[in-house]
Amino acid sequence: MTTNNPVIRIGRIDFTNVWPLFYYFPFSAFGNELEVTQQVPTGLNKAMAQGEIDIGPISSFAYGENYEKYMLFPDMSVSSYSHVNSILFFHRKPIEELTSATIALPTTSATSVNLLKIILYKFYHLEPNYVYAAPELDTMMKTADAALLIGDHAIRASWEDNGYMVTDLGAEWTRLTGQWMSFAVCTIRKEVVEQQPEQIERIYEAFLESKRKSLADMTGMINDAQKLIGGTAEYWEHYFSNLSYEFGPKQWEGLQLYYQYATELGFLDREVKLHIWNHNSVVRVTE
Question: What is the annotated signal peptide range for this record (predicted)?
């Protein structure tokens, strides 16, 4: 199918956690209407901010940085209530003893890095020394007391018997706040919503259908994950089943608390509003 509309550029996170949104996405049905770019979260965050992509599951923190320019698809996110299994904090000592520790942070993440800082400052009253490093646990821990890994890097490290204590940040956030945590949100640039509303609606429906089919029968995703990363079929079935790809009022509430804390601590410079896309209106704002 061809149209006279500009190509819509879709960004895709280079991690298994977003596979259900894309696994059965009917790219061929859109012909030359779409372009797809695959990057780590920080790369997509930057590309979206610079107007180089139009739609994508970007870091929740990156939405907060530029929310005035964006809208959010409902019913689509990478969220968890308790364990997320791929946002993992590896540490030599109990968290409360990391007072003057050096903590290595990955260069691939925005949401999780700031979630860790929020948890350590707000709930443990810690201000450790943070350094950035490539996401490789052994290298990170050569010069640090603790390290954060996300996505497939975290999954691989969790399978190794490395002797570290491991804290799942999704579980820790829910334990401390009682809330959901959304790590990635499916974001659209507002001007594209205004200029190409019909395409946006079709793309939204295609994402939802991919999510529905992927989660109804996870066999293909599980097999592909084993080939690409390793692990057992049981691990991947638990992993995909345990993540939530919903984005509704419960997830919005948890994300607003995250933004509130990020603003209080100066990670964001203003209060964030959730602009939820809707079939019947260009903009709906959730206060």
Answer: none
Nearest-angstrom CA–CA distance, 44 and 24: 21
**Torsion sign across C-alpha atoms 146, 255, 34, 68:** negative
Do residues 150 and 70 lie in contact, with contact meaning Cβ atoms separated by under 8 Å?
no
Instruction: Dihedral sign for Cα 192, 194, 196, 199, please.
Output: positive
Q: Where are the domains of the chain?
A: 8-80+181-286, 87-177
- CATH of region 8-80+181-286: 3.40.190.10
What is the spatial distance between Cα 238 and Cα 179, in angstroms, rounded to a whole number? 21
Handedness of CA 67, 73, 78, 80 (dihedral sign): positive
- Whether 87-177 and 8-80+181-286 are alike in CATH topology: the answer is yes
Q: In angstroms, rounded to a whole number, what is the distance separating the alpha carbons of residues 215 and 64?
A: 28
Residues 6 or more apart in contact with residue 174 via CB below 8 angstroms: 80, 81, 82, 180, 181
Kindly tell me the burial class for residue 266, based on how many C-beta atoms sit within 10 Å of its own C-beta (0-12, 13-18, 19 or more): exposed
pLDDT band at residue 182 under the 50/70/90 scheme: very high
What H or E segment, with its residue span, contains residue 251?
helix 249-264
Residue entry with tokens 């996401």: 135
Token representation of residue 16:
């298994």
Q: Which CATH class is domain 87-177?
A: alpha beta
pLDDT in tens, 190-207: 999 999 999 999 999 999
- β-strand 34-39 against 55-59: which pairing, if any? unpaired
Read off the pLDDT of residues 65-75 as tens digits, 9 standing for 90 and up: 999 999 999 99
Query: Could you tell me if 41 and 108 are in contact, meaning their C-beta atoms sit under 8 angstroms apart?
Result: yes
